[in-house]
Each structure stands twice: as C-alpha cells, then as structure tokens.
Amino acid sequence: MLGEVLTESGLTHDIVKGSNMEQPENFEERIGNTSDPGRREQHEQTELPFLRNIWYVAGWASQFDASGPAGRTIIDEPIVLYRKRDGKLVALADRCAHRWAPLSFGRVEGDDLRCMYHGLKFAADGRCVQVPGQDRIAKSLCVRTYPVIEKHRVVWIWMGDPTLADPTLIPDLGLLDQHWQHLYFGNLDYEANYSLINDNLLDLSHVAFLHEKTIGQSVVPAAEGPLKPYTASGSAAKPVDRGVRVESWVSGPLARTVSLPKKVPDGDLWTRVDFLAPGILIAIDQMYPYGVAEECKSLPPGPERVSLCDSMSIQAVTPMTARKTRYFYSFGLRASEVEAGESDAIWQLAKEAFSEDLRMIEAVQRTIDTHPRDRMGGIAADRGLVLFRNLMKKLIAGETPPTAANNSPKHYGPRAEKV
Ligand code: FES
Ligand SMILES: [Fe+2]
C-alpha cells in the first residue's frame, strides 16, 4: 500500500497521508497528549512511545565487568546490572525496596547485591535475603528483576512482561562474532527522542551532505540533471521481518568509501543495511572485483563470491527517557592489506561522523520542542522511516500499556503470588 502512496506527484502530502492511513487503531491511546490535534499530528511524526515487549541493548558486554554494579536508565526505568561469581549478568530495578536508594550505589557480595544505605541485601532473583538488625524479612521486600542475556558481545534486556521474553527474538548480530582484523566499539548519548535517531539511520542519503567532510563524498550540482545522493537512500527500503532493508550495488569512483583501505582496488561495492525493531542497525559493505555486480544481475552476491574487503557496523538505539537516548556503534574491517594506523584513522572519521549526526539531530529536537504544532515535510527518501515508524506503531499498539499495578515488583517479582 505504501508503495502506491509514494508516487512522484504530491509526494509530501501523500507520504504523511500514507502514514496516517496505516495508523493502528488504538495507537492514539499510547501517544500521550491527544487532546490537541495539531500537537498530536506533529507528535506522531517526531516522537513515538516506548515499546516494552522487546529486547533492548543495555550495552556492549565489555562495559559490564566484575568491579561493581552499573546503573542504566532504559525507557524511563532505572536498572542496575551486575555480574555474579560465574560471570552471568543480573538486572534488577535500581531502587531498593526499603527507602528507594539506588542499588547501583550498592556493593556486590558474591551473587547478591547489598544496598549501601541501610544495608539490605538482595539475591539475584530480587528477594531480600538480609536486613541488618532483624531476623524476620517481609516478603514484600523484593525488587523487580529483568530478563537479561549476553549474546554477540551485546547485553540484551527485556523491559516488558518477562513471560514473553523469548530469546529467539534477539536480532542476529552474528557479524560481531566473526573474525575481524580490526574491531571497534563505542557509544554516545543524545539529548533527543529515540525516534529521531532511528529516522536518521533509516535514510543514509544524508551521508553526502551531513558527512561531506568526514565519511561522505561531496555531491556537486552538475550542469544538467538532478542532484543525486549516491548512498543507498531510504526510498529503496523494503520491509523485512520486524524491520526494513536497503541494499544496493555501487560501481566506479562512488564505491570508494572512506571505510575502504587505500590498497583495496576499485570495484563493485555491495551494501546491505537492515534496521530492526526497536532500533538495531546491521550494515555490511563488501567490495568485489569489477563485473561481479553485473554477473549477479543486481542481486546479492552468493557465498561462492570472494570479496576484496569487508566492513560492517552494528549499531543500536536505546531510549533512556523521552529526551535522552544512548546510541551504540561498532565497526569491523577485514581486508587483504591494511596499512598501519589506517583502520584507526577510519574509526576516527566514523566517530566524527557520529558527532555530526548528534549535532544535527539535537538541533532538530530543539526545533521540534519550540514548534510543537508544526508539520514536517516529506520526500521519497523518507520511505524507509515511514515503513519503520508504521511497524513500530503497530507493535506499540499491540501492547498493554504499563500501569502502576502491572509494572510493580509485585507483578514481575520472583515471589509475586506468595506476597
Ligand atoms: S534504602 Fe536500601 S537499605 Fe534502606
Ligand atoms: Fe549519519
């Protein structure tokens, strides 16, 4: 249906209309202030509620060591994570059941976590197992636990109903487990709603302009013909299971991206970018000798093809609050010849590009917040983000909104029925 809507004529109007046409029925209940129609329309374009029944990236696995508890905020919920003696991670609500001191200020003792306000000790299943100065422990003294899984060098946390926490729903980030000659990880925090960061990653046509001085190549207006960004644009996006995909072949000088080491010869570059709910990007670039794109008839290269160079990036967008988001990124490189220091230089450029994204998106967020009733425009390259927003709206509309009753430790806690 969306493909029919995104035609050449009346594009701006039709994209917005197409988005509204596919609105899930009870979505309005989840977007907050719906009493002001102007505000509501704008809100839907810029900011989505949080999805709860989904695996979120809590961090790179290397960010959680045995030195002590680590506090995080994910979809407005303070969480504390720590490792047990066997290295397995535990995730609890970061709020002591007594006077609500952050448990992330506490101390790990064996497999347990002690609150360092008045000394209550909690087991990994959220039960209070010790109260200094008294023998009897009320059953209500428990904290909520969260399902947590370490996979593909990533820590995943399930923020919704734990009975629905299906590990097979974790996106396949097996690329991170492959052998890479060079592999880098990082993250930065945005003062912006997560939806805007997702939007940015769903249309890489911005690379030629926003990243002109870092990872992009300048697009100079030709004497004739349309000005065209060269990166796979969101206009080519197609739906995949729980996400959208953009893939393309690029040949000639424009295939020469900065993530390619200098000694890798020019050729045909295959690029695939998947973006999956709630905000997981899986990107792979593979350079092949000239002619492979034609032999493949523009389809993906088969496993029998030997690439000259592979690079990949896994990224994740984790909402902290409505205006704060943690953005995780990685970069892997594998090539026949990489000069000393070359991969570090590529990584440096990539990080500068991520800062360019941050500066732009935070500025957009500030404009949104000062003009809460105005509408944004639409172009063909928005196709990917419209598809993804509609998917998110559908998933969000299918959830039961949290209430004080169903979001309490009593509801999710280990001994709920016995309390
Ligand atoms: S607040 Fe944690 S022991 Fe009192
Ligand atoms: Fe960017």
List keywords for this structure.
alpha+beta; binds fe (ii) ion; seven-stranded antiparallel β-sheet; binds FE2/S2 (inorganic) cluster; disordered N terminus; Rieske Iron-sulfur Protein; Naphthalene 1,2-dioxygenase Alpha Subunit, Chain A, domain 1
The second-level CATH architecture of the largest domain is: Alpha-Beta Complex
Shape: globular
Mean pLDDT, as a whole number?
86
Count of individual domains: 2
Helix proportion of residues, in percent?
10-25%
- For the CA atoms, what is the radius of gyration? 24 Å
Say which molecules are bound, naming each kind only once. Answer: FE2/S2 (inorganic) cluster, fe (ii) ion
End-to-end distance: 50 Å
Instruction: Supply the CATH class of the largest domain.
Output: Alpha Beta
Biggest sheet overview: 7 strands, antiparallel
Please specify the SSE layout and strand pairing:
Elements lengths: L1 H4 L5 H11 L15 H10 L8 E6 L9 E5 L2 E7 L5 E5 L13 E3 L2 E3 L6 E2 L5 E3 L14 E2 L1 E4 L2 E5 L23 E9 L3 H8 L5 H4 L27 E3 L2 E9 L16 E9 L3 E9 L3 H4 L13 E13 L2 E12 L6 H29 L12 H15 L11 H4 L7
Antiparallel strand pairs: 1-11, 2-3, 3-4, 4-9, 5-6, 6-7, 7-8, 10-11, 12-18, 13-14, 14-15, 15-16, 16-17, 17-18
The chain binds FE2/S2 (inorganic) cluster (FES) and fe (ii) ion.
